[in-house]
Amino acid sequence: MKNSKKTNTLLWQVSPREGGPVSYLFGTMHTRDLRAFTWLDLAYARIEQCEVFAAEYNFSQTDSAALATALLLPEGTTLDQLLSRRAWKNLAFYAKRKLDLPPETLRQAHPMYVQMVLTTALLREEAPYPLDEALWMYALNKGKSITGLETFEEQLEVLRRIPLEDQLKSLTYFLKHYRRQRERLKAMLRWYQEGNIRSLYQASRRDARWLRRPLLLERNVRMAKRFAEIAHRQSLFGAVGAAHLAGGKGMLRLLKQAGFRIKPILLHVS
User: Fold this and answer.
1) Which residues are 101's β-sheet partners?
2) Domain map of the chain by residue range?
3) Per the confidence metrics, is the pTM higher than 0.90?
4) Which of 92, 120, 201, 235 could anchor a disulfide with 246, C-beta 3.0 to 4.6 Å?
5) 120: phi > 0 → left, psi -120 to 50 → alpha, else beta; which?
């Protein structure tokens, strides 16, 4: 997919080549930073036109107890043991400075969870709900049929399958370069506002590094398959992380290969 004004959009119309219901695929961000809400009204308008709304998973099926367990290291294992002395020192410093937490509270936390909360700390918390949840709540309030392109258990299984060694490697790299993260996030939010899904994909691909296959590629295949199954029968609004859209193995390419016409819906700013 070439990066041009014609493809700079987060919203795509998706319809079977042989004819059928018109659906939409939208790239989201899990953030309460209002800079990511530029496309909200356009997304709301297309949700109203569809019968079914699908987030990455149906948020109403969240198992809080299972999630809490998945976000902890195995019993008897702690981050200060697993990380190098320098990496733990970096983590302790940023826990205090960015999270206002004593580092001991993160000793048993899952490496990917630590990386997520430290990233979130660099973003503004202006909206009452993250963007993806705001879309889900809007669809729910409009009486749409709600589903997920993955199950909650499948999302947890992704977390379980990633080798701990790879997660620690990713967290160590993240902590080493944490001072650069604010500028990186500013760039990603700018690309998001512009609908530049190619740059978002490339940045996420670099960030994922050793975790690219389980976090992006395998999930793209699963979510595109579920999207196609529903979109052949009913009009669907699918909302997934924007990094899943572009690329040679992104959801847009996979849906095109599955027999769908893909059309960009541009954001017209007055």
Assistant:
1) none
2) 11-265
3) yes
4) 201
5) alpha
